[in-house]
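Hey team,

Filing this mostly as a record. A colleague (T.K.) asked me to run one chain through the structure pipeline before their review meeting, and I want the input and output archived in the tracker in case anyone asks later how it was produced. No errors, nothing strange. Just documentation.

Input sequence:
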Amino acid sequence: MRLESRVRGLESRVGKEGDSVLTLDPRLSTPDSPHGFTLVEALVAVVLVAMGIVGALGAISAGLRARSAANFYHNAALLAQAKLAELESASRLSSGEKSGDFAPDYADYRWNGQIEEGPEGLWLVRVRVSKPASKGQSRQAEVMTYLLRR
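Output structure:
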């Protein structure tokens, strides 16, 4: 058997001086080939992609927390405004504290109101709206106004 038939990817060609030179088939890759990636390059690429994914997930998580907080403050402001309007429409005000919830629509929201009588028919009315959050924490928003009653 001939040597050329045993070695795949090698071809024989004759140079200008007539000597025989063996060269590799260009379709086969070699360790010095510029085609492909080394292990270090692949690891760096994987690390960079992983860092990008972790950063994107962190941004999504922060966005969801911000949306939840914004939703609470939006609802709390509207509910406090409604409770202030209810207290303002009462024919008589009395000093003290009142509390309750906004059931059935907003059963997880609670309110606490403080009414203080000031000089010359001026009343300070505070309404605090709270909602229990996860991990034992709660969010609160407070709205206050002055009412003039003579």
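Quick notes for T.K.: The radius of gyration is 39 Å. Residues 40-148 form a domain with the Pantoate--beta-alanine Ligase; Chain: A,domain 2 fold (CATH 3.30.1300.30).
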